[in-house]
Amino acid sequence: MPLDEDDLTGLLLIVTGSTLRAEMADRPLAYRLQKMIQKRLVAEVVLRPMVMSDIWYLNSEPLQQLPTISLGGPGVNALSQFFFSKLPTALGIDGLLLIQMDVAMEDHRCCLWGMDHRKTVEALHVFTECGYLDQFLQGIGAA
User: Fold this and answer.
1) Does residue 112 contact residue 98 with C-beta atoms inside 8 Å?
2) Distance between CA atoms of residues 23 and 4, nearest Å
3) How far is C-alpha 125 from the chain's CA centre?
4) pTM over 0.90, yes/no
5) Are 103 and 80 in contact (CB under 8 A)?
């Protein structure tokens, strides 16, 4: 099936930073999250989780209208830096890891990261295993 770059239907964006550190550490986590999301989808829901860089996202107004998960801290991901003051904190642990999202799901964007790679891995684990991912998917109508 040919790729239609103008068809944004059903996209769920997983955004990582475009720094070398983010590419090496966070992008593999983003692909892991993408696979987890694909496994949790209800069969009749057409949702296409896609990993992309913060540069593409921040430079495209149409992409900014889509459900989005930003992965990686503000030091390596410009989108996480942008979301930091805009999204409410759903969970913060001692300033070491943070999950930001509107738990009422009126806003279909979220952000998760830790103070270092190990803490970002932990934030992803908490997000996927403690109900935040399921809540997010339900909020965007994908579960």
Assistant:
1) yes
2) 25
3) 13
4) yes
5) no
Do residues 63 and 57 lie in contact, with contact meaning Cβ atoms separated by under 8 Å? yes
What is the spatial distance between Cα 2 and Cα 138, in angstroms, rounded to a whole number?
29
Distance linking the first and last C-alpha atoms of the chain:
25
pLDDT number for residue 46: 79
Contacts of 31 (CB under 8 A, 6+ apart): 51
- List b or e across 71-91, with b for residues whose CB sees 16 or more CB atoms inside 10 angstroms: bbbbebbbbbbbbbeebeebb
pLDDT value at 40 more than 80: yes
Give me the domains of the chain, ranges plus CATH numbers: 11-139 (3.30.379)
Sequence-ordered strand ranges (E) for 37-87: 48-53, 68-71
Whether 3 shows a pLDDT value over 60: the answer reads: no
pLDDT surpassing 80 at residue 142: no
